Each structure stands twice: as structure tokens, then as C-alpha cells.
Backbone:
């Protein structure tokens, strides 16, 4: 019977590697426990109970404890250094003209491509602006 548990463990591990869902890994753990139970000479009924019990317990602990923590970690946004320019005052270096290539601004000692918050507005070079938000790699600005 130990060969069955070994095959089941390998199949569950293979399935886990292919899917990476952290679901079938618990069946592999249950199969390992049942494999050792088989090698220890325990009855087939006890091996099956151990398999389902250990697998269910592992899956339950994962769902109740670790899955919510993983979901919370994914939900948190990771701020970047670029976020610090939002709300900062800058100066237009190259005019921002609607429907053309973005202009350039100097903000926090850095040069950024920039577009106007009002898509139809032009902003001439030398104008003081404030960064409203980031859109991709461009700063979206409005005149002060």
C-alpha cells in the first residue's frame, strides 16, 4: 500500500507545481503521513482516515489563517518614490501643448514628462505648476 501513497504524493506534488494554487500540496502532505502509517504497519482504514484528516486540516488552516493574510498583503499598495512628487510645486521647462508630445517640468529636482490636467489647456515654459497625479510615467499638472 505504501506505493499507492507514494504515487499519490508525487501526483499531488506534480499537480501543485503545474497549478501553483497551494491546494494540492495538502494532499501531498496527507499522502506522506499515510505513507509512513503504511510503513509502520497501521491498518488501511487508519491510513485513509489519516490521509483525509491531515489533508483537510492543512487545507482548513491554509484557508482560515494564511489565505486572508495573503489577500491583505496583495491589497496593500506599495508606494514608490515617484509618489512623493504628487502635490509638489514645479516649473514648466518645455511648454505643455494639447494633443502633442508631453511637455517637461522640473519638480523635486527631477525632470518629468508632463501633461495638463485640462487636456485642452496649454501651459507655457516658466509657469509654476502643481503635480495633481501621475499617469503612467507622466506627471499631470495644473498651473498655480
Residues:
Amino acid at each position: 500500500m505504501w506505493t499507492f501513497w507514494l504515487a499519490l504524493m508525487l501526483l499531488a506534488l506534480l499537480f501543485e507545481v503545474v497549478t501553483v494554487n497551494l491546494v494540492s500540496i495538502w494532499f501531498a502532505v496527507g499522502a506522506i503521513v499515510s505513507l509512513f502509517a503504511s510503513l509502520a504497519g497501521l491498518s488501511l482504514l487508519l491510513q485513509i482516515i489519516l490521509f483525509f484528516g491531515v489533508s483537510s486540516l492543512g487545507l482548513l488552516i491554509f484557508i482560515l489563517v494564511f489565505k486572508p493574510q495573503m489577500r491583505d498583503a496583495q491589497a496593500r499598495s506599495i508606494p514608490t518614490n515617484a509618489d512623493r512628487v504628487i502635490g509638489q510645486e514645479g516649473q514648466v521647462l518645455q511648454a505643455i501643448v494639447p494633443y502633442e508630445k508631453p511637455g517637461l517640468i522640473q519638480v523635486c529636482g527631477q525632470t518629468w514628462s508632463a501633461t495638463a490636467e485640462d487636456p485642452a489647456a496649454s501651459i507655457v515654459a516658466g509657469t509654476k505648476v502643481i503635480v495633481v497625479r501621475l499617469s503612467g510615467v507622466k506627471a499631470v499638472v495644473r498651473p498655480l
